[in-house]
Amino acid sequence: MNNSTTSTRSGPLAGIKVLDFSRILSGPYASMVLADLGAEVIKVEPVERGDETRNFPPFQGKLSHYYVALNRSKKSIALNLKSDEGVQIAKDLARQSDIVLENFRPGVMDRLGLGYDALQKDNERLIYCSITGFGQDSPLGDKPAFDIVAQALSGVMSVNREPGQAPNKLGIPLGDMGGSIFSLFGLLAALHQRNATGKGQHVEVAMLDSLIALQGYLSQIYFVTGDTPQPVGTQHPSIVPYGSFPTSDGHVIVACLTERFWHNFARCLGHEELIEDPRFALYDQRLQNRDALHDILHSRMKQDTTAYWLERLSDFDVPSAPILSIGESLEQPHVQDRMLVETVEHPTEGSLKMVRGPIRFNGDGPSTSQPPSLLGENTIEVLGGALGFREDEIDDLVARGIVRKSD
């Protein structure tokens, strides 16, 4: 199956070849995780300017932060899919691939001649994954979909705010990333089934479906009570105390999901009497009397600093944390000790810092990442190694705008 270019990737998916037509975020995140797990990923990009995210500021040299964040350890081939020859090259690569990944609107890949039915005819083992905004058969299918659109339609924006404030999007692009993450579940399950049957299949994931699936207990609150969950900010809709609590110089997070932790918290505050108080003794009583309890908790915690409370909460074994900025998060000892940030050398832009994948096998994380490729950096390697094109044939394709190689 994999008579292509030599891959130096290692991991559980070593030997799996992925042909990635996806761009921007939903899709590229999934293919990056596949690369982290050892797969060889060939990213197909438009010959003109490549993946749109190559042009999103800010930049390190000429490299977009956005492209760097989502495209490590992939090979780039710049291919004109508006030409018959470009489409044929894509078909030839798909014939050798285990996985094809795309995130165009429904029908686009079919019109290009690169849909599942067309590619599966020549490769019955092919697993083809489509990530869309709303799905192939949704009444919203033709609507352009971006992360914030999926967030708005999923209901998550309505609860992602303090009570009385305007709806707000999640700080991370979970609509895009949710689609990618669920596509990975589907792809790995399809690979497992192919091991038994020898046949691939079409995996489909919609961003909106993924966010609705991630509602978790919020959807069940609606089904059980008939009432739609309301925004509670950092608090929990049914667990009290839980959330952000003010100190004399900031805030700390406290999360008392069990009665033991609530008892520990009350003792930590020096208010052990609250444990037996009939207003606060049980979950439902604390929920009904949330405001009264918060008045007591806030009044006490505002008397001392964040540092004081973090140490005391830890001493009393209360789940708690400071609220870190992104920069503080990346510099904290946990990240350093877990080696979650790595530095790789880019051929034109020098040292790049990147966040590593989080999955470990037998204690080891992903193999060292490769820097994100320049546009068309691997065009010659892929065409020559995988498809057997001669150098003069590649030069002719470059001259006619069918493919592009890096400058």
Describe the structure.
The structure is a single chain. This protein has 407 residues and is of the alpha/beta class. The protein has 2 domains: 17-214 and 373-404, Rossmann fold (3-Layer(aba) Sandwich), CATH 3.40.50; 242-324, formyl-coa transferase, domain 3 (2-Layer Sandwich), CATH 3.30.1540.10. The protein has 18 helices and 14 strands. The chain has a 7-stranded mixed beta sheet, sandwiched between helices. Strands 9-10-11 form a 3-stranded antiparallel beta sheet, covered by helices on one side. A two-stranded antiparallel sheet has the order 3-4. The radius of gyration is 25 Å and the shape is elongated. The two termini are 31 Å apart. Mean pLDDT is 95; it is low at 1-7. It comes from Actibacterium lipolyticum. It is an enzyme of class 2 (transferase). It holds the Pfam family CoA_transf_3.
Short description:
With 407 residues, the chain is α/β, with parallel strands linked by helices. It has helices spanning 28-36, 65-70, 84-95, 108-111, 116-120, 147-154, 156-159, 174-197, 207-213, 217-225, 259-269, 283-288, 290-301, 306-315, 326-331, 333-337, 379-387, 391-399, and strands spanning 17-20, 40-45, 59-60, 63-64, 75-79, 99-102, 127-132, 202-206, 242-246, 251-255, 320-322, 341-346, 350-355, 403-404.
